[in-house]
Amino acid sequence: MGELKLSSIKLDKNTPVLLLDLDVLKRNCSYYFKNSKTLNIRVATKSIRSLEVLKIIQNGLGEKFSGLMAYDLREAIWLVDQGFEDVLLGYPQFYKNDLKRIQENDLYRKSITLMVDSIEHMAELKEFKGLQICVDVDMSYYLPGLYFCVFRSSKRHIRELVELVKVIRESSHNLMGFMGYEAQLAGVADKKGILSPIVYFLKMLSKNHILNLRKQIKNEFPKTKFFNGGGTGSIHFSSEDPSISEVTVGSGFFHSHLFDGYSDLLSSPSLFFRLPVTRRPNHTTITCLGGGYISSGEVGRDKLPKIIYPDGLEYISNEMAGEVQTPLRDSNQTLRIGDYVYFRPAKSGEICERFSEIHLLKNGEVIDQAFTYRGEGQCFY
Questions:
Q1: Do residues 222 and 302 both lie within one domain?
Q2: Whether residue 236 is found in the same domain as residue 181
Q3: Cβ contact 49:352 at 8 Å
Q4: Are 65 and 41 contacting, i.e. CB atoms less than 8 angstroms apart?
Q5: How far apart are CA 262 and CA 89, in angstroms?
Q6: CA-CA distance, 7 to 285, in Å (whole number)?
Q7: How far apart are CA 290 and CA 315, in angstroms?
Q8: How many other CB atoms are there within 10 angstroms of residue 159's CB atom?
Q9: What is the pLDDT of residue 195?
Q10: HSE of 280, CA atoms in CB hemisphere, 13 A
Q11: How far apart (Å, rounded) are the C-alpha atoms in residues 327 and 289?
Q12: CA 250 to centroid of chain Cα atoms
């Protein structure tokens, strides 16, 4: 955790706790401010999931902050109620009652942009009027027998976009922009062991494809309000693309441990959690309370929390991180009941679903706490 001395943190709680180093978070904001070059930054809420921390990041980014990318339609409405003025919904959703609320409220209608990628999506919006629309474009790279990306948008060719945009413009809705998210760059680490050369080669091929496709879209539809691209893991690449107007960053502010595998990403870990030691079953084993905060995605050991303090601890292979307790091998045999073990989550925002508050650190001391979405009484999915 850099300069932070975990052993010196004083917090009068012997339950599992989530902690955020504000000094590191501030440096991460400065890092992404600088490395986004001329582009604005949209913050991905799924990677933060705390209203107060979103506002801290907004202040840290200053003039670079272009708005939020929400992951749920109900969340988008709630965020506007909390004072945010530009919320892009990152995923197609069509909750009829909530769409009706947006249509009937001038502030919601002007502040929230919905995501679509098909004519079928537009059919879901047919009964509504005057909504703001963004089109998600598939940036995947295809080789014979190989699909390199994630399954998101159904639109990957200009001719398909022309057809969809025509439907949008013939409707009562307003086309605001495009999203061309390069998940195969932003979401795939460079350091993949023996597969690293293959990943590097595929990324290089993908970059040319992405640049060309986004340039075609920009030339075909030059008058939209924004063109969103990027992600934490591809900030350096996307910041050099003249076709897009903003990049999305989320996980980079907390820098969860999956992002240690990106060779050119120099933000730092700011979020971690602490578990109390509650048992010592034998002289080489301790048991911590809680800890089963496993991240989503392809199942593997890399989705486990990473033990960061103290040294000499490792998971037990037939138990790993458990729902209510986590046993660990303690090779140094120094920990006792009442001591603490510190971890980093594999992904950023997901961990906030397991805690109601985040304890905020400054200069190594707990100075305040911020509610997570859960602590605010919000549970989206």
A1: no
A2: yes
A3: yes
A4: yes
A5: 27
A6: 20
A7: 14
A8: 8
A9: 55
A10: 13
A11: 9
A12: 4
Residues in the chain: 381
Q: Is residue 380 part of a domain?
A: no
State yes or no: pLDDT of 143 exceeds 90: no
Q: Please report the pLDDT score of residue 200 as a whole number.
A: 65
Task: Verify that 236 and 279 share a domain, yes or no.
Answer: no
Q: Do 214 and 241 have their domain in common? A: yes
Instruction: Classify residue 113: in a domain, yes or no.
Output: yes
8 Å CB contact between 230 and 31 = no
Give the residue numbers spanning the domain of 136: 22-255
Q: What residues pair up with 361 in beta bridges, in sequence order?
A: 21, 366
Say how many domains are in the chain: 2
Domain of 314, CATH number, reads: 2.40.37.20
pLDDT in tens, 243-295: 999 999 999 999 999 989 887 889 999 999 999 999 999 999 999 999 999 99
Tokens at residue 244, please?
């897009």
Tokens 């991905």 -> residue: 44
How many other C-beta atoms can be found within 10 angstroms of the C-beta atom of residue 83? 9
Supply φ then ψ for residue 147, to 5 degrees: -115, 115
pTM over 0.85: yes
